[in-house]
Amino acid sequence: MEMARRPRGRPPGSKNKPKAPIFVTHVSSEPPMSPYILQVPSGVDVVEAIDRFCRRKGIGFCVLSASGSVANVTLRQPSPAAPGSTITFHGKFDLLSVSATYFPPPPHSSLSPPVSNFFTVSLAGPQGQIIGGFVAGPLVSSGAVYVVAASFSNPSYHRIPAAEEEQKISVSGEGEGQSPPVSGHVTAGSGGESMYSGHLGGSDVIWATNAKAPPPY
Question: Which distant-in-sequence residues (6+ apart) come within 8 Å of 7 by Cβ?
């Protein structure tokens, strides 16, 4: 009994079969958010140093925490008698908490920023006093200051409507849960706006480094 031999090679027409397309996934060189740890040397304005770093990188920055000490701090504190007034605290203070947001530069200089940059701190004084508020002047480091932050880019801005506006949108048939669009990106500083909070007038507070002993009875 003879066995039929199979022909060698590819069967006829096998090379002409369509092949599945190859998809190449583009991987971004930078993630949408990246952690950063910045070391600010002594005698440097921390607010201005972070602002220069963000402008040079062209990124947005969300400061999460900071450690170190600063000297002679000017803060804007809410006061019903004098809104926007500032107060200057002289001496050395330890950083307890920092909250700051730096928005990336706009793609077009004509766009106006819907949100302003801000920088707020909580500090511990030499006698255990706790102060805080919006930074309204230079925040000069008194030693090395370490800042932990996360970068971001191309943020989108959405205005959340009030309850009355949501009902009107639902009745008009424009769709529920849609926030009114805002052109441009969230950005600030394009018009030379200072990172320091604006102020009207001010006063000084000087604290001694050592507490005085109580008088003997």
Answer: none
